[in-house]
Amino acid sequence: MNLKHSKQRDSIKEFLKGRKDHPTAAVVYENVRKTIPNISLGTVYRNLTLLADIGEISRIHVGDGVDHFDADISPHYHFICRECGNVMDMDMDKMDLEKAAGRNFCGEIEYHTICFYGKCEKCCEASIQKKHNVTLC
User: Fold this and answer.
1) Range of 79's domain?
2) Are residues 1 and 62 in the same domain?
3) How far is the C-alpha of 88 from the C-alpha of 77, rounded, in Å?
4) How much is the average pLDDT of 46-57?
5) Contacts of residue 79, Cβ cutoff 8 Å, sequence gap at least 6
6) Pairing assessment for the beta strands 58-61 and 67-70 based on DSSP bridges
7) What is the CATH classification number for the domain harbouring 127?
8) What gap in Å lies between CA 39 and CA 74, rounded to an integer?
9) Is the domain of 4 the same as that of 28?
10) Phi and psi at residue 40, in whole multiples of 5°?
11) What is the pLDDT of residues 61-103, one digit of tens each?
């Protein structure tokens, strides 16, 4: 796709490249506004949608009803903390699941997503602290 250059789109991509926490459109908007004060939330949403549609960023659905965005479009896996909602990359070897799935499938598999769910390190530590700092009457 041949897109006209856009300062807003460049700022959004640059912001996402520096992140590993997979921010929502609202977080992108609040941060890009620091460098482009007159940018609108609608402009951020439109550009995030466009960038995801053309494959320059990934849109991640984690089950919280809000899209999260990732500048890393390479195949990788995510962990979603069910307590705090944090979305992070999993540091693990990539499996060739598309090839394995394709052995018994006659269609064309274009991509796959895998998300792991549980409690992140910070939330685990917080619940341990809470458990041990109980005050008795």
Assistant:
1) 75-137
2) yes
3) 9
4) 95
5) 87, 88, 89, 90, 115, 116, 117, 118, 120
6) antiparallel
7) 3.30.1490.190
8) 29
9) yes
10) -100, 160
11) 888 889 999 999 988 889 999 998 889 998 887 777 777 888 8
